Amino acid sequence: MGESSSELKRTPLHSVHVESGGKLVPFAGWHMPIEYAGVVSEHMVVRTSAGIFDVSHMGEIEISGAGALDLVQTVTTNNAARLAINQAQYSALVYPEGTFVDDLLVYRIAHDRFLLCVNASNADKDYEYIRSHASSSTDVRNTSAQYAQIAVQGPKAIPVLQKMTAFDLLSIKYYWFRHLDLEGEDVIAARTGYTGEDGFELFCKPEAAAHLWKRILEIGAGHVTPTGLGARDTLRLEAKMVLYGNDIDQTTTVMEADLEWIVKWDKGDFVGRSVLWEQKLKGVDRKLVGFEVVDRGIARHGHEAYINGNRAGVVTSGTFAPYLKKAIGLIYLPEEFSGVDQEFEIDVRGKRLKARVVPTPFYRRQK
Amino acid sequence: MYPKEYHYTKEHEWVKREESHAVVGITLYAQKQLGDIVYVDLPPAGKKFASGQPFGSVESVKAVSEIYAPLSMEIIETNKEVSERPELINEDAHNRGWLVKVKVTNESDYEGLLSSEEYEDLISQDQH
Predict the structure, then answer these.
(1) How far off is chain B from A84, nearest CA to CA, in Å?
(2) What is the ipTM of this complex?
(3) Residue B62 in contact with partner chain A when CB distance is under 8 A
(4) Across chain A, how many H-helices and E-strands are there?
């Protein structure tokens, strides 16, 4: 908003989106496709067939050298020492207060070399933060401009991609990756995603992106549909994957975000550990939970919640979930009110709508 | 695309004038802007609205939009089918996706509405 499209960064696929009728909007400093055919139909295609997403705006930071593992271990909460080469993990980059610099995926490329995939709007900040903790034996680079990234997600994603490579894609397990040849292009194919579906995220050279995008759509004709950031947001929310800037940020801790599973207490010291450990022992004051709106209407980011007439929190993400066909969202509620079935009210444009805490993820794919 | 016999507003409602009443809905352009509509909120029969007053809302996955009374009116009937299947507005905004049947309480309000040509001009300017 307020940004003219000429000031916005463009991915290598920008002209492809314009040609194919994508609706482009400013997003995190980039001019990105928000939708093609419509959020609901794109969402449903990913759940039932496959969608292709341009996620080239995502940032990449590479850490290498003798101190690489130590550095990753110091600034992130998960245990990178447990990663084998070609394995990835979800993690948090944290401040001493236990709050988020960012959330990210950590890929172990070699014994002493890691690739971090971070949020577009945070890449520069993350890079400076990581560098400030680096010793002289460690090389930290912001390599965001060297990669385009294409995600192919949904039950038909792997069958389609398999037609483009001799490498047995099913031999790559969930949260593992390989360097491989896809239609003559060298890619890092990671079996990861942000939709709750099976599939791959493909890192490639910027100049290879348009060719790969077109070939995936040709080979996947009838199965794969271009999908925008609108559906990416509804898909990730149904799967209860948090979004930096909405659900987590520099004011929320990893424990409050209910992400203790990415905090490895036994790995040695790391930034923020003492605050997070104290929250584990004493409990958190507030906790991120999933809710559904019981009344008719959609609670959205920024809407305030009330319990017994008292302000109890603010909706961090909220939408109509196209697959589940109900309004869902995430909210930080006081710990004592965060149990499943807790009822509360959300002020939606002056109207109090009834909502209820529900188990998450809202959606889990059949395996 | 925009029926000649309908009247339109700058807020993207349409009005179809019948002998004893009028039918009100939102335009094809409005539904396109909103995208997938999932909730419709309409007032009960008997409620009266002055021209320009909000009388209900339509909500899509992306956004919510108020609907304004195109003219002074009293609700006779709401479209039950649309309440149950709001996507009908996306599918057929100008016909089966109608919202309310109303009694027009001030016939001269029709004079303030746009013709189909005027409305098409308006939205073509909006688009760029």
Answers:
(1) 41
(2) 0.80
(3) yes
(4) 8, 19
